[in-house]
Each structure stands twice: as C-alpha cells, then as structure tokens.
Amino acid sequence: MKSHLVHFVIDCIFLSLLSLREVETKFKILGSSSSGNAALLRTGKSNILIDAGLSGKKLKFLLSDEGLSIEELDAVFLTHEHNDHSAGIRGLSRYMNLPIFANRDTIDAIQPKLPRRPNWKRFETGQPFQFQEFKVHPFSVPHDAYDPVGFYFEWGKGDLFDPPSSLAWVTDLGFVPTLVRERIRQASILVIEANHCTEMLEKDEKRPWSLKQRIRGRHGHLSNQTTYELLESMENACWREVFLMHLSQDCNDVNLVRERFSTLPGQGKRFATYVIDPATAQPVGV
Description:
The protein is of the alpha/beta class. Helix content is 31%, strand content 26%. 39% of the residues are buried.
C-alpha cells in the first residue's frame, strides 16, 4: 500500500512538472496587417519581440495586457525596414539595454529616421547565431526591401522537461525558395502570411495596377491559394500550430481564409490552424 502511494505521488509530481513546462511557452501575435506587425514569444526563460511594426506606445500597452513591461523584453528581432514591421523602433530606441537584432541593410535603412541610436545587434543573413536559449536562423526571403529575412527560432534542451521546440516566422515574400520551404516544414509553430485573395485584389478599385503587380509579383506577398498549395505540398511537417497572418484588410477576408484552409490535410488532427484577424489581431480557429 505504501509503495503504491509513493508511486502515485511521484506520478503526480511528474505530471505537474510536465504540464508546467507545456504552459511555459506562449506565443501571441500583437499586430497583423499592413498597419503593423509584431508578435511576442515567451518561454520560461526569455521574452522576445518579433518585428515591431506598431508604435512604442501601442507596444507598451499590448505588452502590459500580457503582464509585461518593455523593460522585461530580452530582445527584438526585425525582419526588414518597412514601416509595418519597424515603426516601433523609434519608441523602443529609448531603452538602451534592449538589444534590437537586424542585418546591416535593415539597420542602415532605419537609423536615419531615428532621433537616437538603439542598441543595435547586427547579424548576417544566412548565418545562425545564439541568443540566450535560442538558436536563431535568419534566412533570406524574396521581398521588395533591402535585405528582408524570415526567422527560424529553436529552443529547448531536448529532454522530457525541456523538449525541443521551434518557430518559423515567414511573412512578406512573393514566392517560397527551397530553403524557406524546409524551415516551414520543420517548425513546431508556423507563422506564415496569407495576404490576399487574388480575385479581391483584381477587383479592388483603391490600388493602381502598378501596386497590384507589386503585391502579386515574385517580391510581393503570398496569396491565400499560394500559401494553401505550399502547405498542402508539405510532407512530414512538424507543425503543432499554424498561424495565418498579414491578411490585407481590403483584399482578403477572415472567413474566406478559414473556409479555404479548413480542408488542409492534417488540420484539426495533427495541428491546429488559426487565422489572425487584421482588425483585432485575435486568432480565429479554422
């Protein structure tokens, strides 16, 4: 009887520790549209911001909703210089202890617009580097910026209480090169754009023909159909969660995206899929 009790207690402790580890990693998209993109990744050890396309004031407010102050951020990682991904650097530059990671061309494009120099940390595109518990892989993506990148983050020791995990951040690209495909396949958490509905973009009267060509070109943005076909073609994908973001507010629709991706093989069984509403940045389940 005593032996059974000891085993029961051990099992309870084990399950408690395991469940604690599961809730330690939190991912929250704070903004997702041409008005501003940013996300917060929290592990048990680190808090990092991926892109900062919202004002410093807005980021401070959104972080406070998550129980964090800007001073509690460990780093910011920037994909490229476009305002909807970097607008918050002006406000964040006041926090001199906050490392802001970007490549040389992105830094050179942003710095002249700032009143002060942030705590820039330069990386080389294509060269992995370590930051705290993260191994960070910045990879090149085809977009109309100086040197745009996506990110693949890896963390976790690989044991039972600190299992390996990964996140791929893939937005703002006109097509998907082979290396990017592999990063997409490997990720536990995949964040990828489904920017526009081709038919809605074609009918849109606000955008001139030249802008439409840019959006659907090889250095523009992925359409719903292109992203769907990409994910459908993946074999042995490692996803637990897929977030579809950077939806155009004029040329896309949350329910249209939900309907299209509801037939994605594995959706609802091997992984969960969420569409990020561009108006609220809230995830809507597929």
